[in-house]
Automatic annotation (TrEMBL):
Residues 37-158 form the MTTase N-terminal domain. CDD domains: Radical_SAM (cd01335). One of its GO terms (cellular component) is cytosol. InterPro entries: Elp3/MiaA/NifB-like_rSAM, Methylthiotransferase, Methylthiotransferase_N, Methylthiotransferase_N_sf, NA-bd_OB-fold, Ribosomal_uS12_MeSTrfase_RimO, rSAM, rSAM_horseshoe. It comes from Enhygromyxa salina. [4Fe-4S] cluster 1 binds at C46, C82, C121. One of its GO terms (molecular function) is 4 iron, 4 sulfur cluster binding. This is Ribosomal protein uS12 methylthiotransferase RimO. Keywords: 4Fe-4S, Cytoplasm, Iron, Iron-sulfur, Metal-binding, Ribonucleoprotein, Ribosomal protein, S-adenosyl-L-methionine, Transferase. It is found in: Cytoplasm. Catalyzes the methylthiolation of an aspartic acid residue of ribosomal protein uS12. Pfam families: Radical_SAM, TRAM_2, UPF0004.
């Protein structure tokens, strides 16, 4: 871990107003402030981190404080960090230092002092190191300490607020204040936290602790509340979605599984799409595939990180499966429905990935079974078994392999999109297009928010959250270009 410039492509997101989806403060979660504060946020990292940020936003609003979108106007500056890989850590550090400069500038100008709060995965992983190296930070909150922000804002918090992680560590529930931001018709719902997998390259268990699932009734209540506020699509997220519920009995709660949760969520009448992210390859059951293929409210989409197909590399990664496992999974999915959109991630440059192993992975991708792909070079992380392997791959070679695979997949996806020309598709409208205020942006069932491209609608009028029928007219490597089919009933399944 080092301080310094990075130029890295990890999302840095100041929270801009207005924010949608405000809930009433519930029960004992938040106390009224002694002095209302103006608070500025930056959220980094994945959708799971976004949910954590939204909880802290809820703490701010429910406590009577004010959110601002300019750090110069804030009394308290908050960074929710990501610490998963080197790129994310460096981006987090640079963001902290950037806000520290804002804090220092205010002090030099004689303005009321600002407080700087660092929350999330980086604090959880390096509490002592950060406290020693960054005296400009006033408070640290760990990945299970988001509600501690209320004590910070109330002036009753110690500098270090990072709790050890175990099976009973904090996990938000439907009554926790949460302030969603962005498109109100689409929201992420975290159904669990932590991971029990022993993957050799991954530090998630250190950052997030062991698997902890929310009860079915609690998730259903949250989604019901969100739908009441206008949400039409929910994206279910967890570190390991497919082991949802396996720990509930151990914690004295009613046992369940992902299939049971989907059945319960499917009873919510105004909910249209349920999207699944981060399924583990060996835990994708036939029952889950069947629901993705046939359930009217489960999107025909599955995000399942495969990481590699070479059996030797998978063994070094400690993934617990082989190339045959991966191929059988794809076969089972395609046997249920050829219309299920598959997203996966691959990790290249892992120790032991020789040229033959890489070519095996490349050949698998070239077969065209994957619809959406992310490829990342291996990042050495202290405390992982992968970091101890001596068979290192040169960084430049790993980066070149990642670029080659992404270029290969771009051609595959362009062909897949081109084959959709003339098709009639259902589109969830996201809003006015970034391309022109005369166009609309949306997504079809096979496109998750932000990562899978979009559908650009050339004509017609619709509101964010509307479902419309559109005919694909043109395609690019990333997007579909369509026109509204005004004569078709959006609820017609033909």
């Amino acid at each position: 871990m080092r301080r310094g410039d990075s130029g890295l492509h990890v999302r840095t997101m100041p929270i801009s107003l207005p924010i949608v989806g405000e809930r009433e403060p519930a029960g004992p979660h938040v106390r009224p402030p002694q002095t209302p504060q103006k608070v500025y946020f930056v959220s980094l990292g994945c959708p799971k981190n976004q949910v954590d940020t939204e909880v802290m936003l809820g703490v701010v609003r429910a406590g009577g404080h004010t959110l601002v979108d300019d750090p110069e106007l804030a009394d308290t500056l908050v960074v929710n960090t990501c610490g998963f890989i080197d790129a994310a850590k460096e981006e987090s550090i640079e963001t902290i230092l950037e806000l520290a400069r804002v804090k220092a500038g205010a002090a030099e100008a004689g303005i009321d002092p600002k407080r700087l709060v660092v929350a999330g995965c980086l604090s959880q992983r390096y509490p002592t190191e950060l406290a020693n190296e960054m005296p400009e930070v006033d408070h640290f909150l760990g990945s299970a300490d988001m509600l501690g922000l209320q004590n910070v804002l109330g002036g009753a918090a110690q500098r270090m607020g990072v709790s050890p992680l175990d099976r009973r560590s904090w996990l938000y529930d439907h009554s926790t204040p949460r302030q969603t931001y962005g498109a109100g018709h689409t929201n992420y719902v975290k159904i669990g936290e932590g991971c029990d997998r022993p993957c050799g390259f991954c530090i998630i268990p250190k950052l997030r602790g062991p698997q902890r699932s929310r009860p079915v009734f609690d998730i259903v209540q949250e989604v019901h509340d969100l739908v009441g506020q206008g949400t039409r699509e929910i994206c279910l997220v967890a570190q390991d979605l497919t082991t949802y519920g396996t720990d509930l009995g151990e914690r004295g709660l009613a046992p369940s599984n992902l299939e049971g949760l989907l059945d319960a969520l499917g009873e919510i009448s105004e909910l249209r799409w349920i999207r699944l992210h981060y399924a583990y390859p060996t835990a994708v059951t036939d029952g889950l595939i069947e629901r993705i293929a046939t359930h009217p409210k489960v999107a025909t989409y599955l995000d399942v990180p495969i990481q590699h197909v070479d059996t030797g590399v998978l063994k070094k990664m400690r993934r617990g499966y082989t190339e045959r496992t991966v191929r059988e999974l794809v076969e089972r999915i395609r046997a249920q429905s050829a219309k299920i959109w598959l997203r996966t991630t691959m990790l290249v440059g892992h120790p032991g990935e020789d040229e033959a192993a890489y070519q095996r992975l490349r050949a698998f991708i070239a077969e065209g079974e994957i619809d959406h792909l992310g490829v990342f070079p291996w990042s050495r992380e202290d405390g992982t078994t992968s970091a101890m392997h001596p068979e290192r791959v040169d960084d430049a070679l790993a980066n070149a392999r990642a670029s080659e695979l992404m270029e290969l997949q771009a051609g595959i996806r362009e062909q897949k999109f081109a084959a959709m020309r003339g098709e009639l598709i259902e589109v969830l409208v996201d809003g006015i297009s970034d391309e022109s205020e005369l166009l609309l942006d949306g997504r079809h069932e096979g496109q998750a928010p932000e990562i899978d491209g979009k559908v650009i609608l050339l004509d017609g009028t619709a509101e964010p959250g509307d479902f419309v029928q559109a005919r694909v007219m043109q395609t690019t490597a990333h997007d579909l270009i369509a026109t509204l089919d005004l004569d078709r009933d959006p609820d017609d399944d033909d």
